[in-house]
Design a protein that fits this description.
Elements (H helix, E strand, L loop, with lengths): L2 E6 L2 E5 L13 E8 L2 H9 L10 E8 L11 E4 L9 H4 L27 E2 L7 E3 L6 H4 L2 H12 L8 E5 L3 H12 L4 E5 L3 H10 L4 E3 L6 H5 L13 E6 L4 H9 L1 E9 L11 H6 L3 E4 L6 H11 L9 E6 L2 H12 L7 E5 L5
Parallel strand pairs: 8-9, 8-11, 9-10, 11-12, 12-13, 14-15
Antiparallel strand pairs: 1-2, 3-4, 3-6, 3-15, 4-5, 5-7
Helix pairs in contact: 4-5, 4-10
The structure holds zinc ion (2 copies).
Length: about 350
């Protein structure tokens, strides 16, 4: 089969002879129809380790072999949970396989030595990872369930719900999804900090936030404080804060506006040490939670919410390209530019709508 692979640093290649998945009577095989490009694919592409790896972990397709899944038949529309847990550790055994440290979410790539889904076919490690898509959810939409799961998890981990005033730092796709979930889960007020004016405008147009603020603007706190019960010094503040930037300035700014005993989800990826003002976390007595991956149940939860019209996932596709090396390479280069204002670039691989 054809597969897009890491060729060298910053360069993808097309392997025309990548081995096809082999029927084993257990694990279903899907024909990949759509695969989104994620920020972590870009990180992997920068490092190019290992060479020859197939990228892509946000995807949907149609069943060509149902394996041991009696509820599936050839042609069914499906998506897939892209994880590689061991099944043996305390996390896997307690139903929290997204916390498994064995071969899950290794630095640089999600699939370590396991091929991803920027390819014509895909076979998961376990048949239960295949999730059937409701009839009224298009395939390209189902390919965005995985990143939506991260935004949902960021809210779940700090119990976002009615009564909350939530601040999200960063208006990329994960920040936008987290803000959207905060609204869907019933938060009273959702604000965002974002430096990129195009992204700020997009978040407001989409209605995923009530306000967007430029945290570098002089006097911005005076604008924010009236919205959050007068702000921290008046005994108010955001009750929940979700960082989707990994940038110290954004985290310090957000923690400073968070109410005493507030909860913070750290989602933004940053491999370098950052000058974090931990004194703010001490003074405000905050609870900080790190977010990586999301429970497999979130796939069912999100597909249901999308199917019932409670979460508009379709609008996150801001560009679609073909399964063509040059187009995909150009998309990686576009996403690598921090000034890009894409939410999700979708690669159309198969011929189904
Ligand atoms: Zn991803
Ligand atoms: Zn495990």
């Amino acid at each position: 089969m054809k597969a897009i692979v890491q060729a060298e640093k910053y360069k993808l290649g097309m392997n025309e002879n990548f081995p096809d998945p082999v029927k084993d009577g257990k694990r279903p095989i899907m024909k990949v129809e759509y695969c989104g490009i994620c920020g972590s694919d870009i990180h992997s592409w920068e490092k190019c380790d290992p060479v020859g790896l197939v990228l892509g972990h946000e995807f949907s397709g149609t069943i060509v072999d149902p394996g041991d899944r009696a509820d599936l038949k050839v042609g069914d529309k499906v998506t897939c949970v892209p994880i590689t847990p061991c099944g043996e550790c305390e996390w896997c055994k307690s139903g929290r396989s997204f916390m498994c440290g064995h071969n899950l979410y290794a630095p640089g790539t999600f699939f370590v030595d396991k091929p991803g889904a920027l390819a014509e076919y895909f076979q998961p490690l376990k048949s239960e990872y295949i999730k059937k898509i409701p009839d009224n959810v298009p395939l390209y939409v189902a390919a965005m369930v995985e990143p939506s799961g991260i935004g949902l998890r960021a809210c779940q981990a700090i119990d976002v719900g009615p009564g909350d005033k939530v601040l999200v730092a960063g208006g990329g796709i994960i920040g936008s999804m987290a803000a959207n979930w905060a609204k869907t889960l019933g938060a009273d007020y959702v604000a965002m900090t974002e430096l990129n004016a195009a992204r700020a405008k997009k978040a407001l147009e989409m209605g995923v936030v009530d306000d967007v603020f430029d945290p570098t603007e002089e006097g911005v706190e005076e604008k924010i404080n009236p919205k959050i019960d007068g702000g921290y010094r008046a005994g108010g503040g955001f009750t929940k804060f979700i960082d989707c930037t990994g940038a110290a300035a954004a985290i310090n700014f957000g923690m400073n506006l968070t109410k005493k005993a507030g909860k913070v989800s750290l989602v933004g990826v940053n491999w370098k040490p950052v000058p974090l003002m931990t004194i703010i976390a001490l003074l405000h007595q905050l609870t900080l939670v790190g977010i990586m991956g999301s429970p497999t149940d979130n796939f069912d939860y999100i597909l249901k919410a999308v199917s019932e019209g409670r979460f508009d996932l379709a609008r996150y596709r801001t560009k679609q390209i073909n399964f063509d090396l040059d187009e995909i390479q150009a998309a990686y280069e576009e996403l690598h530019d921090p000034k890009n204002d894409q939410l999700k670039i979708m690669v159309k691989i198969g011929d189904s709508e």
